[in-house]
Design brief:
The chain is an alpha+beta fold and 86 residues long. 34% of the residues lie in helices and 9% in strands. It has two helices and two strands, in the order ββαα. A two-stranded antiparallel sheet has the order 1-2.
Amino acid sequence: MLFKTVGRPGDADFRVNVFAKGRAKWAGWAELVRDDLDWDAVKNTGRVVAEVDADILLTVEAEDRLTLDRFNRHVLGGLLGKRPYP
């Protein structure tokens, strides 16, 4: 197990496995899967972007330009009523 949650739902902490002492001592794996983001995650990302209100916004691993444009217009400009990026 790479990590575990401790606490109640909504107030849980993540604890990293302390038994593995470096890469050579860990016989596990992590699997990344491709899945759609839920709407709450998209809205929360928009809230953070709007709150920071950076002059320049750098994105990493965005799906495509159309997706970024939709996020800019519909989430930042529409849902949150903030200034979309030009």
